Amino acid sequence: MKISDMNWRDVEAAAARDPRCIVPIGSTEQHAQLSLCVDMILAERVSVEAAEPLGVPVYPVMPFGLAPYFNAYPGTVSLRVETLLAVMRDVIASVRRAGFTRVLIVNGHGGNDPVRALAQELMAEHPDMSIKFHNWWSAPRTWAAVQATDTSGSHANWMENFPWTRLPHAPAPAGEKPPVDMTAMKARGPAAAREVLGDGSFGGAWQKPDAEMQAIWETGVAEVRDALEGPWA
């Protein structure tokens, strides 16, 4: 149940029935030949599919996150840490005012991990709140499904290549990309990191069969739904 399909009366009624909601967060950053919006697309979609049977509202995805290492790639948007935390603090305050005190933050971008600490801080400030921070792709069962498919799963390779993150005009290259020296990449600024990464993928196969990806996806949706169902404080 998307907030975009609701009016304020709908939200008021929903919060009175059930204090749960989902706030998805992502990033707008290079993903090789895939959409720049991979992380936000996946975070929102997995949230909507997980929440729909439960009738739990899903807020619009936060499209920007922390991605300074990709700043040399056109199209990437990177917030400062303090900016992201300030925005998320205001978002959570707003959903709390609406009556939602059980908030599942579904994260689609590893760089956004500082929000996890913010969630703890907010619960200390507001004892009536229970907030969970859920990295959907690295949750235990989902990550196990990824590893069972191919241990190379990583940024901008097959692991993020779903039918809904592809661009029709930019098909995946055939074969596999050699592993990238991640230590060298992380020790450099954005321009040098682009030299190391090239197209932007961290290495490994660019694409896997859709049936394998669908199985991983269904595991991810189920795990988000489990997090939504509880337990809550």
Automatic annotation (TrEMBL):
Q: Which UniProt keywords apply?
A: Hydrolase, Metal-binding, Zinc
Family label = Belongs to the creatininase superfamily.
State the protein's name.
Creatininase family protein
The record, for SUPFAM superfamilies, names: Creatininase (SSF102215)
Cofactor entry:
Zn(2+)
InterPro entries according to UniProt: Creatininase-like_sf, Creatininase/forma_Hydrolase
Q: Does the keyword DNA damage apply?
A: no
Keyword Protease attributed: no
Q: Name one GO molecular function term.
A: metal ion binding
Domain of life where this protein originates: Bacteria
**One annotated GO biological process:** riboflavin biosynthetic process
Pfam families named among the record's database cross-references = Creatininase
